[in-house]
Amino acid sequence: MGISSNMKINSERLWDSLMTMAEIGPGIAGGNNRQTLTDDDAKGRALFQSWCEEAGCTMGLDQMGTMFARREGTDPDALPVYVGSHLDTQPTGGKYDGVLGVLGGLEIIRQMNDLNIKTKHPIVVTNWTNEEGTRFAPAMVASGVFAGIHTLDWAYAREDADGLTLGDELKRIGYVGDEPVGSRKMHAFFELHIEQGPILEAENKDIGVVTHGQGLNWLQVTLTGKESHTGSTPMPMRVNAGLGMARITTLVNDIALSHAPNAVGAVGHCDVYPNSRNIIPGKVVFTIDFRHPDKAVIDDMESRLRTEAQAIADEIGLGMEIEQVGGFDPVEFDKDCVGAVRSAAERLGYSHRDLVSGAGHDACWINRVAPTAMVMCPCVDGLSHNEAEEITPEWAAAGANVLFHAVVETAGIVD
Q: Contact, 207 vs 375, CB < 8 A?
C-alpha cells in the first residue's frame, strides 16, 4: 500500500493549532515574543506536549531540552523518521517561523490516526531548543550539540544579555531531560518552514524543494578609538570608532555585491559606547553576517573584510579585533529525501521549484548526522523575523501536505 494523492492533512485543524499557539507569548504588533527558555516558552512546550500525548505519542526529552514526540511503527527495530522545527521566536517574531514545522509534524500524526495509517518506521515530531539564537547565541544550539558541533557544557554556559546561562534557565523552566544529546539515531529528518524570502510568492509557486542551505559566517568586530566631546574636538583630531563602523558597513555591502547574485552581507547588530549624543564614540562592537552557498566565496568575503577593514581602521587610527562568533558551511541535502519532497509535490499537483535556503535551520546541522531535507511554503512579501510575518491557510496546508506525503512515504506504509 502506498500513499495516494487524496490523502491530505486537516488544514483547519492545523490552522487552529497555529492560532492557539500564537496566543502564548503575544508580541505588541500581532506577532509573538516567545523567546527560548522564558516562561512563555515553557507554556508553549506544555501545550505542545499535551497535544502530542492526546495524539497517542510518548514524549522524550534530552539534556538540551529538545522534545521528541514518538508515534510507534510496526517494526521495533526500524529507525524513526524525524520531523520538526522549533517553537521559540524572535523578540519581535511571527506566528509561523519554526512553529509551522513543529505543528505541521503534529498534524501528520493526528491525520495518520484519523486515517488509521500504520508505518514500518516510527515517526518522531521534534521541537529543537533555542533555534533562534537571539537570547542565547549562536542560533541552532541544541541541534548543534546533537550533531556534535558544540559540547553540552559549552551550550549550557551561553549567557543572555542579563548574564543568565542557558543551562540555568533550562533548569528553571523544568525542561532538562536525562537523555544524552545526540544518542538518537535517525532514518531521516524533514523540516517544514516558511521561505523567509520572496521567491515563491513572486513566482507564484506553492512549494519550495530545498536542495541546499547557504553557508553562514558571523564576525564580531570591535573598534577602539577615543571618546571626546563632539563640540570641542576638531575634526582632524578625532579617533571616531563610529566612523569606522560606518565605513566598514559600506565595505560589507560592497563585498557582498561583488559576489552577486547569491552572496548577501550586512551589519545586523551594534553596540556603541558610551552611546551619548555629545560624545564621539570611543568603542563600537558590531556583527557582520556573510552568506553564500559556496564556502570558497564565504572565505573570500571574510578575507577581504579583514584586509580592507584593517586599512579603514589604520586610516582613522582605530584599534580593531575581529572574532568569528558563529557560522556553518554550506549544506547539500540528501538526494533521496529531496526526491521524496519533490515527488510529493508532483503527486499532489502543487507548483514547485528548487530553492537554496538563505537562512540557517536545525536541518542544516542534522544533515551532518542523518539524511535530511526541507519543504518551504511562501510567506507574504518574503517577510520574517517580524511581527507582520504572514502566510495563508492554503500555503500552510500545501506545505504540510507535502511534508505528510514525504514523511509517510519515507516511513513506509504498512497494509
A: yes
**Other residues' Cβ atoms within 10 Å of the Cβ of residue 237:** 9
Q: How far, rounded to the nearest angstrom, does the alpha carbon of residue 343 sit from its chain's CA centroid?
A: 25
Q: What are the Cα distances from residue 117, in Å, to 71, 109, 111, 322, 398?
A: 11, 9, 8, 54, 20
Instruction: Report residue 326's pLDDT band, with 50, 70 and 90 as the boundaries.
Output: confident
Phi, psi (deg, nearest 5) at residue 84: 160, -170
* C-alpha torsion angle, residues 179, 88, 360, 11 (rounded to 10): 100
Pairing of strands 123-127, 81-85: parallel
β-strand partners of 32: 26, 93
Predicted confidence (pLDDT) per residue in 345-397, tens digit: 999 999 999 999 988 899 999 999 999 999 999 999 999 999 999 999 999 99
Residue 262 has pLDDT above 90, yes or no: no
Whether residue 35 contacts residue 132, with contact meaning beta carbons closer than 8 Å, is answered with: yes
Nearest to 407 by CA among 91, 101, 49: 101
Question: Which amino acid, residue 99?
Answer: V
Q: Which residues pair with 229 in a beta bridge?
A: 279
Q: Are the C-beta atoms of residues 134 and 110 closer than 8 Å to each other?
A: no
Secondary structure letter of residue 271 according to DSSP: E
Burial of 117 from C-beta contacts in 10 A (0-12 / 13-18 / 19+) = buried
The dihedral formed by the CA atoms of 410, 21, 68 and 65, expressed in degrees to the nearest 10: 140
Question: Which residue type is seen at 123?
Answer: I
| 60, 62, 105, 216, 408 from 183: Cα distances, Å | 12, 9, 21, 27, 23
